[in-house]
Amino acid sequence: MNNSIIENIANPHELERMFRKEPEAFKKSFSYAWEQHPDSKILAVWYERLHFKEKANTEKANLFQKDFLFMGILAILAGLCTRILLYFTEQEEIAPINLVYGVLPFITAYFVFNNTPSKKIFYTLASLFLISGVYMNLLPMEQNDSIILTYIHLPIFLWVLSGLAFTGNEYGKGNARLAYLKLNGEFCILYASMAISGMLLTVLTMQLFKFIGMDISEFYFKNVVSFGAAALAIVATYLVSKNLKLAKSIAPYIAKIFSPLVLVTLLAYLITVLGVGKNPFLDRDFLLSFNGILLSVLAVIIFSITESGLVEKKSISDYINFALLVLALIIDGIALSAIVFRLSSYGITPNRIAVLGINILILANLIWIMLAYMRFLQNKTGPSTIQDAVTKYLPVYGLWAAFVTFTFPLIFN
């Protein structure tokens, strides 16, 4: 090997072949060749290649350990905080929505730790989390429409704040927002996979204790499951942010498989609706389900777009996404008409105003994405234009969620 390296010192292709065939033997023999020819530029490059890799791995390992330790601390704190909040919820001293503060602040803290933002962003995040928590617990614990709407929109607002922590000082850049959306899709896949494993463990544990005549279900769900569900969210965030190959390799395939299935299901559903004569203008529950479908389709479209990447070549997935956009616009148009009809016929309520607002926002977003897709399919722009239509609109949803969360209880109570 020593002679072979020296003999092929001017043959980069052969050196690469030798390295790939027997990498360990090549590394051991390289030092002799390097001593014999210290002035060789080719061997100098090989020296840096072989030794820099080891140094980079050491630095990465140290960083990995540091991040792992911080993640572990946050996971334990999230689990403990969730269990404490659950106790006060059971005592009916606080509203159940407070459970989100057992998870999202700790995920946000992890993002801040990994991507230290400016002091302005840090103080903004801290103050908004604190203000929203205090405000939420000053509200009366009543089950009226405006309070329920506040509970529904609060997690959306906090999710946007978490996105601000993830993007850090690059919050205005589309690629940073797109990375946050991708992380959310991969997080859902990984968390669901880990949660299924957790459920299997729970069933096994319950059964084992039943064999000895003990029913620990209440204790187990209150303490172990609540703690584990919150801690698992931090662990999943850590694994996805560390480029876990499992979630990143599965996510694009799920997007490609799920989109056509949703399209077929949605078409069948709409045809069935026309056949049975359901009317969203008169049936309130059906109108709500219609809006639920709209939100689901929008989520599928965004997930598919974020996982498609910046591939210039058009594929069947792009045409499926465009068809989903058209269907979503039809659904949104019907829902919007029904809401306006109900407002004019039955008067103003918090629910109707909230649904009207979100439908108008979704309509504008769908039109923007569809126009970008049309230009892409006509070879006038690249896929980045479509992704911009998704990422640049995210703050609008956050502002609407904040508006509903903080003003509806004051306006309608």
Quickly list its features.
single chain, 413 residues, 2 domains, mainly alpha
Structural class: mainly alpha
| Beta-strand content estimate | under 5%
Distance between the termini: 84 Å
Number of DSSP strands? 0
Largest sheet: none
Low-confidence stretches: none
Taken from the alpha-carbon principal axes, the silhouette is globular
> Share of helix among residues?
over 70%
Mean pLDDT: 85
What is the chain-wise order of helices and strands? HHHHHHHHHHHHHHH
Count, helices: 15
Radius of gyration: 27 Å
The number of domains = 2
Walk me through the structure.
It comes from Paenibacillus ginsengarvi. Keywords: Membrane, Transmembrane, Transmembrane helix. The chain crosses the membrane at residues 68-88, 94-113, 120-140, 146-166, 187-208, 220-241, 253-274, 286-307, 319-341, 353-373, 394-412. This is DUF4153 domain-containing protein. With 413 residues, this protein is mainly alpha-helical. The chain has 2 domains: 97-243, no CATH class; 250-413, no CATH class. It is 83% helix and 0% strand. It has helices at residues 2-7, 12-21, 23-36, 41-90, 104-114, 119-138, 145-167, 174-211, 217-241, 245-276, 284-308, 316-346, 350-377, 383-391, 394-412. Helix 8 (174-211) crosses helix 14 and helix 13 (350-377) runs antiparallel to helix 15. The longest helix is centred in the first third of the chain and has 50 residues, at 41-90. It is globular. It starts with a helix and ends with a helix. The model has no long low-confidence stretch (mean pLDDT 85).
